[in-house]
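Changelog entry: the DUF5723 family protein record was regenerated in this release. Current contents:
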Amino acid sequence: MKKTILFFMFMIVVTSVNAQSYVGYTSDNYAGIQGVLYNPASIVDSRFKTDINLFSISASAGNDLYGVKFSDIFKKDYDFDRQSKFTPTSNNNAVVNVDFLGPSFMFNIAPKHSIAIFTRARTITNVVNANGNLIDEVKEGLDSSNDFAYSVGNLNTVSNSWGEVGISYAAVILNKNQNFLKGGLTIKYLQGGVNGYANSKDLSATFVKNNANPQLSVLASNGLVTIGGSQDFENNSDIEFDANSSGLGFDLGFQYEWRPDYENYDLNNAKPVDNNFKPLNKYKLRFGISVTDIGSINYSNAKQDTYDVTGVVTQETVDNIGDVYEFFNDNYTKVATKRGIKTSLPTALHANVDWNIHRKFYLNLNSDFSLVNKNAVNKNSIANAVTLTPRFETRWFTYAIPVSYMEYTGTQVGSSLRFGPLFIGSSSVLTNLVSSNSKGADIYVGIKYPVCQKKFKDTDEDGVLDKFDACPKVAGPVENNGCPWPDTDGDSVVDKDDKCATVAGPTENNGCPWGDADKDTLLDNVDGCPTVAGPIENKGCPWPDTDGDSVLDKDDKCPKEKGLVDNGGCPLYDADKDGIVDKEDACPTISGPASNKGCPEVTKEVLKELKVQASAVFFVTGKAILQTSDKGETDGRLDAIKEIIKNYPNAKFSIEGHTDSVGNPIANQKLSEARAKVVMNALVAKGINPDNLTFKGFGDTKPVASNKTAKGRAQNRRTEVIHVGTINEGKL
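Regenerated structure tokens:
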């Protein structure tokens, strides 16, 4: 037997591939239009101003039934059946995917809005719950098989090809401090291509071989088989595309970015050269979630037939199968027919986390989960997968190493490279190089025309971008197109601000030299009164006379009170109200007669009181030391003398000391002088002006009583305070 239906199923399995496209590339911040296929939100706040896909294709091959060593399969003598590793189960599975992205582009229509338009052709084939043990029995044909009995069960196969024209819109939803959220939606017009499927329900197969007469070998089966396609293949095996077979599809996605350093990207602080920080990655963590391929295609000319395959056919009948529909119609009972079929897209959920480890190094975790019931009739689905991808990423270069766990094919390691407009990669290439049991192989390649966001050039750092700067290598103001203003006179004041552009002058005078408007020899810049002449000492201003008394304030001792010129600008005062102005009053604070120049006169009564007080000032016997044993008597007398003398500020008083005749006259003379001096010093210590005092000793030369009696001698030992004249008269 050359071929059987089951062997045909086997061939689908061994050529199966993963449904994911561009594994390890779509998480790149420079994936551009390819990124929109997995999450439409990715195109806003993009590193591209625009990204134009010229051509890209993604395809892969693998299965969970056979494993091979890829380095061997290209050898001339390679024997697939003998050298491959066969791992059959009762439910081997597979999925086929070829994804071609035609002319497509994305671009930013505003800082927070982007769109993309793409064209795409896709083919997906699924095989679910294929009994690998049965395939092993019939892969060489029934001729080589022994008796077998297997439950095929609920085998499900579906293949669908279609074209897409999609438009995507994405916008920034939230941009507040460290939180950044964007969302996107894709609407796709779907043009159906070719759709075919087969499904069994509770199918079992038993083969009984007759070695004596192979023609009598029989294949018995039981269950239901449903087959269908995008057209009536029973009556027309030529593939015809139906323009009316169309549908709509949708993709929806969101991306959240955590931006802990958001203050560094505050647009209020951005310079023109920063290009609003568009070229920079601003997130530390990025979380994405999306649902893709929501929708279906309505094949208006589709036909679906269901057969009850309960019965027995001979090996000869199986060997001579020509047309599948003819085989089923001739040997089994058709129980249902249906026309006009909808084929659902392979709806899937994608979750993605991207971590910016440090600067240009990233680590991405991506998961893809099918949302389709894989056992349902005519339902395409993807293979579930989890991929961890470390990558190094710059504007023109990315290298990534995706490590994936794929449903059906297991763990595989690949490599991805982006270099300028070219990208190429595979999610399994490294595994295929070293593994002796590879169950998958894939590759994607593309070429595009990317226009990246980039920091603008400002060579002279004057805030005017080079493309607008008339002098890009010399700093200058925006108003002068980035060129420095000229300074003809070289005074550091540019001509546009220089009121004397051809004559050097200071900045403070708008580039003009200083003048002397009031001709007072002080230049206007240092002249406090540049329009009124004045002396240099008063910064070029005339001296004021506030009180108008003809005495300038600088000379006026009373600048706010009108006075006499010969009195220093002050009026004449009589503080003690004694009729003598203070300037002529020797005692301006104490009233006195004019005859004594305004000072009080020392009267006989005053002198008498001084005599009384002075007579009570006592000394230690034979010494010039004030007596302190009289409980303050002596000190009190001195205070009384002080109070009297201070009332006569211009009077001159003499402190006179006397002794009795006892003792040596020379010693008595010295003792009297010393005692007089002690009293004078005591009064000065209490605040009396020393100019008002003098002292003198007379010894025993001026007795006031007889020295022959003790009483007389006591009277002769005395101190007297005598008025001797006035200070201003110079009398002693």
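Residues 5-452 form a domain with the Porin fold (CATH 2.40.160).
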